[in-house]
Write a structure and sequence with these properties.
Layout (H helix, E strand, L loop, with lengths): L3 E8 L9 E8 L6 H12 L18 E4 L2 E4 L11 E4 L6 E3 L2 E2 L2 H9 L18 H8 L9 H5 L1 H6 L6 H11 L8 H7 L10 H5 L6 H15 L6 H13 L10 H4 L3 E4 L6 E6 L2 H5 L2 H13 L2 E5 L8 H6 L2 H7 L1 H9 L5 E4 L2 H15 L6 E4 H8 L12 E5 L3 H6 L5 H6 L5 E3 L15 H4 L1 H18 L3 E4 L2 H13 L6 E4 H10 L4
Parallel strand pairs: 1-5, 9-10, 9-11, 11-12, 13-14, 13-15, 15-16
Antiparallel strand pairs: 1-2, 3-4, 3-5, 6-7, 8-10
Helix pairs in contact: 6-7, 6-9, 7-9, 13-24, 22-23
Length: about 525
């Protein structure tokens, strides 16, 4: 019997339906079949009333974009997997005309208002010739096929599209800003359209069929220009950025710092170590979440990993870079940390903060003009990939927990599964699924400091997902996410749901303590 796959499709015809509903179809499976092929099969062989868009079938027009199992994708380039059933729904943020067809008028009108064409002061010469060097800064942005997937995936757009136009628009602003022929002030236009409301969660990159790096190559570079021209950073960024430059930390110290608690240098020696790593604590762990830092060191040593903590370090620079203060980070912070971390003489530096890890791994080489002398990994990455985890010394923690997967770990460092892989090995943890576990909590990209209202709107949605999961605890491994989720659960009146860093929970298992 031929293998079939069940396709669950959103259906809504306003002429006959009071409410949307779903219909399930069985489609013959063959290797290489795409979602668009399945929709065509349904239309041609089962139900000719199904409405959906498609044109080129070559991944160039963007018209067939839909949401497939919760992620926006272009249907002609989304493979149909035989191992799983598929749910297809229309793009978000747009009214549904019928079934999978949405009304794009509100989005198209917004494009018209931004004047998405080269503004000139005089008529262009003919023929107009651009050098390869002039084309390079805008080449990637010209790949955009306007499929609207990034708009549908963006958590900031979902909460405040009137204030934040979204990734696709800001890619267009960047394309024109970096085009030497254009004379319009595109940075100012981008600022008005919410340049500082992006959390740099990279959800747009994840769903983009052309893999355009909008947060790094559009948002952050446009913010850097905004700073140089006096538009940025926002008032909420000023305090922590100036503190980082003056004192090396973005926050004031509460209690004894982690560096003061541990013996720096060889903070944790072990006999016959399997590996030796450097540990970069970051600002929040050093000054606010010291117990998390101590737990990370203890967990590594429990697994026969020798840990070197530098006797000094400075802010990684991530908060400054995300706010557009790239020059300040490059001049005051990055060179100090590179010298300190390379001076440890280790092959691997681990971080407990995904933001620190992503900045060191992705931004530092560009800022210093060379590769680093060590590999950077988040601690959950390191434990999942490089360590045969010691489970014999663990005891049951007996907790029903859900996972919030931090954006800068999942998409920034390319580790979508490592946090769950490590957590699943802790005895007594009953994992429960949360809706959109990888959805941004609103803490990143300088939005919590600069645009608190939008940040907390995003946090509220994340908080509701956590509450609805029925979990007793939410586990993450990012200091910013930890604080954001703790704050929103308190605000929503659910303080009884505990928030743990993975290291908090893991070290309790090693110590035989109850959560």
């Amino acid at each position: 019997m031929a293998k079939t796959v069940k396709i669950k499709v959103f259906r809504y015809d306003p002429d006959i339906d009071k409410e949307p509903h779903y219909e399930t179809y069985e489609v013959p499976y063959s290797e290489g079949l795409m979602i668009l092929d399945a929709l065509n099969y349904i239309y041609e062989n089962i139900d000719g009333t199904l409405a959906y868009r498609w044109a080129c079938r070559a991944g160039q027009c963007g018209s067939c974009a839909v949401i497939i199992n919760g992620k926006p994708k272009i249907a002609c380039r989304a493979a149909l997997e035989k191992e799983e059933d598929v749910t297809i729904t229309p793009l978000l943020q747009f009214p549904v005309i019928k079934d999978l067809v949405v009304d794009l008028e509100r989005g198209l009108r917004r494009i018209e208002r931004m004047r998405p064409y080269v503004e000139r002061v005089k008529k262009a010469p003919r023929p107009e010739i651009m050098t390869a060097e002039a084309i390079e800064p805008i080449k990637e942005f010209r790949e955009c096929i306007e499929c609207w997937a990034c708009i549908s995936a963006c958590p900031a757009v979902a909460e405040a599209w009137q204030e934040f136009s979204g990734p696709m628009y800001h890619a267009k602003f960047a394309r024109l800003q970096f085009d030497e022929r254009d004379v319009e002030d595109r940075v100012k236009m981008a600022f008005i359209e919410g340049l500082y409301k992006c959390t740099t969660c990279r959800a747009c990159v994840e769903v983009c069929p052309k893999e355009i790096e909008i947060p790094e190559k559009a948002i952050e570079k446009m913010r850097a220009i905004a700073v140089r021209t006096g538009l940025g950073p926002l008032p909420g960024h000023a305090e922590y950025t100036s503190r980082a430059i003056k004192f090396g930390r973005t926050v004031d110290k509460i209690g004894t710092s982690l560096l003061e608690m541990v013996q720096t240098g060889y903070a944790a020696r072990v006999k016959n170590p399997k590996d030796t790593v450097g540990y970069f604590p970051g600002c929040l762990t050093d000054y606010r979440l010291q117990e998390v830092g101590k737990a990370i060191i203890e967990i590594l040593t429990k697994n026969n990993i020798e840990v070197i903590v530098p006797s000094e370090f400075t802010c990684c620079g991530s908060p400054l870079i995300r706010a557009g203060l790239v020059d300040e980070a490059k001049e005051n912070l990055v060179p100090k940390n590179v010298k300190i971390l390379e001076g440890l003489g280790v092959k691997t530096v681990v971080t407990g903060c995904p933001g620190c890890g992503m900045t060191i791994k992705r931004n530092y080489p560009e800022l210093i003009g060379r590769e680093l002398g060590f590999e950077t990994m988040h601690v959950s990455q390191y434990l999942a990939r490089n360590v045969d985890l010691n489970v014999n010394d663990m005891t049951s923690v007996n907790v029903k927990a859900t996972i919030h997967n931090p954006c800068h770990l999942n998409r920034g460092l390319g580790a979508p599964d490592d946090l769950e892989n490590v957590m699943s090995k802790i005895p007594g943890v009953k994992l429960v699924e949360m809706e959109e576990a990888d959805r941004c909590c609103g803490a990143g990209g300088g939005v919590r400091a600069g645009e608190r209202s939008i940040s907390m709107m995003m946090a509220r949605r994340k908080g509701e997902f956590i509450i609805n999961s029925g979990a007793e605890a939410c586990v993450t491994q990012c200091p910013f996410c930890y604080i954001q989720i703790r704050d929103i659960l308190k605000q929503l009146g659910y303080e009884q749901i505990k928030v743990y860093d993975l290291a908090d929970l893991m070290v309790k298992s090693y110590r035989g303590e109850k959560p």
